Amino acid sequence: MKPKQDRGAAPATGQMAPAQPATEQINLEQVSLVAKNTLNPGLAAEITTLEGAYKSAAEDRKVAEAKVLAKKWDDVAQAVPSALYLEIVAGKEPTLTNWLNAGDSFMKAFDNSRDSVLLPALLQKANLAYTNAVAIDSNSNDAKTGLGITMVNGMGAPMAGIGMLLGVVKKDPKNIKANMSLGTFAMKSGQFDKAIVRFQDIIKIKPSPDAYFYLATAYENLGKDAEAIEAYEKSKKLAANATLSKFVDDKVSALKNKK
Question: Do both 84 and 5 map to the same domain?
Fold first, then answer.
C-alpha cells in the first residue's frame, strides 16, 4: 500500500491505443536485463541461471521453467518480467486460470509502472489475456472484471467497461475488485459522492488500507475534512507502512491547519 498518485497513464475517458503491437513494445530479454540491474548481484546471477535453464529446456519442460521464473521475478517485486513468463505459460497451456494469472500480473505491472512507453503495452497485454479468459468462460466474474478494468483504463469504450463491471457487481455484490474499480473510476470522473458510497460498501465487506485511503481522498475533494482525517487515519492503521504513515501524517496535519 502506498499513496496513490496520478501518473498520467490513462484518462478517465477515451482509449489508450498503443502506437505499435504490445509484442513489439516489450522485449523479454531487454526487460530482464533492466530488472536484473536493480537487483543485488547474487539474485541477478540466480535469475540468469534460471533463464538459462528455461532456454535450454526441452519443449515439454518449458512451462514448468517459465512458472519458476514468473514466481522468482514476482518474489523480487519485478512484475513486468513475471507477467511475460505467465503469458508464456498461458500461451502454451491456455486455461482460464493461466490467462487470469497473466492478466492480473500485467495489471499489477501496469499499476506499478511509471514508464510511459510500457504502460500502453502492459494494458494491451492485460486486455488480451482477459479476453482469452472470457473466451474460455464467459461466465467468469474474474475474467469479466479484469476485462472491464482494462476497458475503463483505456482499452475500448470506458462506459462499456463500466457496464461490464456493473454487471459483475449485480451478479456478485461483494466482488471487491469490481467495486474498487467502479469506485476509482468515479473518482477519476469527479463523482466523489458516488465514490464515497462505493468505498463505504467495500469497507463493510472487507476493510482495507486502499478502500479507506480512497474514501479519505473522496471526502477531501468534497471538503469534508473531518471525515477525510478519520479515513486517512484508519488507512494508516491498517497498512502499518512507514511511507504511507508519513504521507498520512503530513496530509492530516495539512487538513487540520487549513484556513
Answer: yes
Taking CA atoms, 235 is separated from 98, 163, 208, 217, 229, in Å, by 32, 29, 7, 11, 10
**Number of domains the chain is built from:** 2
Query: Residue 57 is placed in which grid cell?
Result: 529446456
Domain span including residue 89: 1-161
Whether pTM exceeds 0.85: no
Supply the angle between the helices 141-152 and 118-136 in degrees, to the nearest 10: 150
> pLDDT digits over 177-205, tens only?
999 999 999 999 999 999 999 999 999 99
54: closest CA among 75, 36, 28, 23? 28
Q: Are residues 148 and 51 in the same domain?
A: yes
